[in-house]
Design brief:
This protein is α+β, with helices and mostly antiparallel strands. It has 13 helices and 27 strands. Among the domains are: 68 residues, no CATH class; 72 residues, Beta Barrel (OB fold (Dihydrolipoamide Acetyltransferase, E2P)); 99 residues, RNA polymerase II/Efflux pump adaptor protein, barrel-sandwich hybrid domain (OB fold (Dihydrolipoamide Acetyltransferase, E2P)), CATH 2.40.50.100; 45 residues. α3 crosses α7 and α5 runs antiparallel to α6. It starts with a helix and ends with a helix.
Length: 521
């Protein structure tokens, strides 16, 4: 019944509360945390979710074979291979760039195409990004019903498509040096794949490519002015033979995607450890930082120079150096959007945070326990503009402290400070905790205590560790309730003492007035 109500309300999108976006000053609120994973009920007040999270992640570390059974880490690419309409409506294609291939199918040739579904009033109901090389089953103005398939693609490979009709020819494809026949172990089918040509002394200067020639035998020119030459990267599987006739939208080769490779048994925990220390992964993905057009610069040693020319006037072009042996799917002149992958792989969490923000990072790190720990890693903000606050650009400030200060500044009509979230490794985050007792008991004791003494810090004993150290009841579980009771009792005591003080003052005043009156008589 609830589902029907939601459907009729035609809700476009919903905000999901997450541990990473919770705005409470200390700890985390029960609504943002959600379900207690041990009991399946909403989490109780005072539950030490941080300790549970740390133990849940630490426990599988001792049993090597068990690691893969424990959920944790990052959201892997779900191998979705098609797109279905989520609403009834009319199709509109944004940045439409499609061609019909030799099978008569529509193929997406743009990298920033989106299929929109509009309702009868022309209002946008759904928007779906379409990957380059997808087969599209609908066109502008078509009517679709809910659940109808509108596009499909191969989730394991990225295609390289020809934009022109012509005859295929190979350049620098030397058998045994830059290309070889390989038999698939499972099917026994042989395929021709590009191999690392730099491994052979004779292959140092090769640049394997597929070119498309016209009827006169000359290489055709693309609409953007460059030759119809498609450079191939290592491991690309060739889909055409020399001399074959191709139409626009036909597949020349396919590049296997990094994420499609099978994960080994030890993949789980070391990745999590890498994530928590906020280290860059070994084969990290390269993410575009601006919208723009791809250009190839001069190669540097064994790296390919990729330049992204910005769309806006006056923007600085961005340069990226990419190892030549890595599978690379972009061609010169391709339009790319901020946040798109230039090179496949495991993205560094810092890059996701800097380029796409906290929400994108939250969807990359899916798991309650991991979110709790990443919340602590995201507690600091680096000041970019100080406004009317006393901070200096470059200062690392507590996120909630900054939000409270900005609120105060806005109330007074002053300019608030702004900053970018910083992802600290767990070691660094533990040393940056507000409690100096907790930080000193962890690492670098003398430095932490010296800094606390110089700054004249006060420890309010809010966490578990500092309370254990000084021998108090910890503020979690029943201790949390005790803390609350103590707080209420203290405030009541204060009120009673205040009333007594007022009564004593009143009595004193009355006595003085009486004595003055008596003296006057």
């Amino acid at each position: 019944a609830d589902v029907e109500v939601i459907e009729k309300a035609s809700i476009q999108s919903i905000n999901i509360r997450s541990a990473l976006t919770c705005e409470i000053r200390t700890g985390i609120c029960a609504t943002c945390y959600g379900r207690d994973l041990a009991r399946g009920t909403p989490v109780n007040m005072g539950e030490a979710v941080g300790v549970i999270a740390a133990q849940s992640i630490g426990e599988p570390g001792t049993q090597l074979t068990m690691r893969t059974f424990h959920m944790g880490g990052t959201a892997q690419v779900v191998d979705s291979s098609f797109l279905e309409a989520s609403y009834e409506g009319t199709v509109s294609i944004r940045n439409r760039n499609v061609v019909r291939n030799s099978d008569g199918r529509l193929v997406a040739m743009g990298r920033n195409m989106a299929i929109l579904i509009l309702d009868q009033a022309g209002k946008e109901r759904a928007s779906h990004r379409v990957t380059y090389g997808s087969r599209i089953f609908v066109d502008d103005g078509d009517t679709v019903r809910r659940g109808q398939r509108i596009a499909e693609w191969d989730p394991y490979t990225r295609p390289v498509l020809t934009e022109l009709e012509g005859t295929v020819d190979f350049e620098d494809m030397v058998e045994g040096i830059s290309v070889s026949e390989q038999a698939d172990e499972s099917t026994g089918i042989t395929k021709r794949a590009v191999i690392d040509w730099r491994a052979s002394p004779r292959g140092q200067d090769l640049k394997p490519a597929i070119v498309v020639r016209g009827k006169d035998g000359e290489i055709l020119k693309l609409a953007r002015g460059s030759d119809a030459r498609y450079f191939q990267s290592v491991d690309a599987i060739l889909s055409v033979e020399p001399g074959a006739t191709v139409k626009a939208g036909d597949v020349l080769s396919r590049i296997p995607m990094e994420s499609a490779k099978t994960k080994d048994i030890t993949g789980g925990l070391p990745r999590v450890a890498e994530l928590f220390e906020a280290r860059k992964p070994k084969d990290n993905a390269v993410i575009a930082e601006i919208d723009g057009t791809v250009k190839f610069g001069r190669d540097y040693k064994n790296k390919r120079r990729i330049i992204i020319e910005p769309h806006e006037d006056g923007g600085e072009p961005m340069e990226y150096l990419i190892p030549k042996g890595k599978p690379f799917h972009l061609q010169e002149g391709d339009v790319i959007e901020k946040g798109d992958y230039i090179l496949d792989g495991n993205p560094a969490p810092h890059d996701i945070l800097a380029i796409r923000g906290v929400e994108a990072l939250a969807s990359y790190l899916v798991n309650e326990h991991i979110e709790v720990i990443v919340r602590q890693m995201l507690q600091k903000v680096e000041i970019v503009e100080s406004g009317d606050s006393g901070y200096i650009p470059g200062d690392n400030v507590d996120r909630i402290e900054l939000a409270e200060l900005n609120e105060r500044l806005e109330e007074e009509g002053k300019k608030p400070a702004s900053g970018n979230p910083v992802l600290l490794g767990i070691t660094k985050a533990s040393l940056q905790t507000p409690s100096f007792i907790s930080a000193a008991s962890f690492q670098e004791t003398t430095r932490v205590l010296t800094e606390a003494a110089v700054a004249g810090k006060t420890d309010t004993l809010q966490g578990l560790k500092e309370n254990v150290i000084v021998g108090r009841l910890i503020p979690a579980g029943t201790g949390g309730m005790m803390t609350q009771v103590r707080r209420i009792a203290t405030s009541r005591d204060d009120l009673i003492l205040e009333d007594r003080r007022k009564a004593a003052n009143k009595a004193e005043t009355d006595r003085m007035l009486t004595s003055i009156t008596d003296a006057a008589e």
